[in-house]
Write a structure and sequence with these properties.
Length: about 550
Amino acid sequence: MNVNEFRRIAPGLLTAERFASRVPLEYRQGLQTLPWERFQGRLVATRQMRTLESWSVFTDDRELLSLKLEDDRVHIVRGIESYTHQPHDTPEGIQTRESSCWQLELIASMPLTTPNLERELMLGLQRAVWGARLPLTPEESPHPLFSFGLLAYGVADTTPGRRVETWLRMLRPTPQALAAAWKGASGFVGEQGLSMPQLSLRNNNRGIDRPRSPTNPLAPLDPYSPNGCLLAAMRQVFDDVSLSPWTDFIPLLLDAAESLFPPGDVAEWLASLLLLVTRHLTAYDLHLFHHRGENYPDALLLEELLVRLLRCSRFDTRRQRAALRQGWLLRCEYAGHTVPATPTSPGERMRVYPMGRIPADRTRRLFDVPLSIPSEALRASIEDLQNGFEELGAAVFLDRPYGDGKQPVEPDATPIVASMAYSRAIALRRWRRLTGEDHSDLTLPGLPLTAITPARRPASLSLTDAARVSSDFVFRRTLPTSLRRLGLKGTLLARSSRGLTLYDDQYQPLQTWQIDYSPGYVWRDGLEYPILWASGVCQRPD
């Protein structure tokens, strides 16, 4: 795409119909002179001024979201109110003091030669509003306006889970209104705003061109399509949602599911989610990770799911009993752990939120209210372990196998790969808690940690994080969704001393390749992939 073609498509990416908003929005286009300096993919504070051609959306005269053209590259930039330290004069000299100000963050940068540039820019703008699937840096976190139900972008072009999340955050419908909109009974978006039965949301946009055939950001989905099951869409919410900052969104979602579906279906749904949370907290515990428990929304989610499972389940399936057992074990492990009053982190405390700054003082103890667990169901869950005990020591660790070409502080939008691991030591400890006895046969096959090498990039996601939790972890398999995303067929993907290696079900190498990162990365479907892959093993993404 050349510059003139980009200038033609840029305004269409920021039209009013792409936004759902409770704040006033104003579109501006033209040359913009601003402080501008990039270092390793980030904007840095600078006195250097640049004039860039910009297509921007403002709120209250502050730049909220924009596309900026610099030579042959397009930058996606968002504005967020943050706390920062500003210099000021004192009798003792220049000092700094904390104040809030509107800061720009660079979310993505793409050359004009990017394949399907218009789609990639749309996905990048969605990322600027919704955040990344697993926010590890400030630029990957959701925009506060989205977290608190004030702004969404491109809802018509997203997954069913994201659409349900946006409905609940922004419109807060009753469960019945949500179901009616899903089935197509309503969900019309007119010139004056977004509407559902007895619910309305003004769009409040000024100065933004509207196309002749407006799309529907909250359009209902076909209930007979493969994605038409509302409960499945609610399950998909957890594939994308960021739990930070913690709001009332999760209770609202769970309330809707309990109101709309039979208890048996809800119990299976809650059990599957609870098992995911327990595997995550086994891998990334609150003692070593999550800022040593300072940011603990997963623990709050565990409690929400466990309490609701106890309320609606008869524990007549193995999955429900396994979820009860694992949830109870994790609750016991973290009971009494001291945390702040509300989940927070150093990055969160730099954001300006409606509820004010969250103190870091650890004044709360987790799970300090006793929970009545049905003893018969718990005993049955122990008997279930005779048919397989992997879940007792299961953990899911994350890796970014294509992130080794990134600079130390550069934002990383490469795919996240999730792999299941198993620790005999953790399984034995939990077995003892359950039964008071030892167990001589809790060993499972897998790829040992000694065969896996760490990421080249410091502080990057890596399977070797498992060594911090327990040195006896073995990796059993990479989750199928992760392998499909990369177009690979095998059992386990891990770094080895020879390169990136794909293993079969006997943990023998199928393919090994070295990746040349020197040409850089290319955006594809909202993620970054290395431009060049090893010849004959993995094809160049196109």
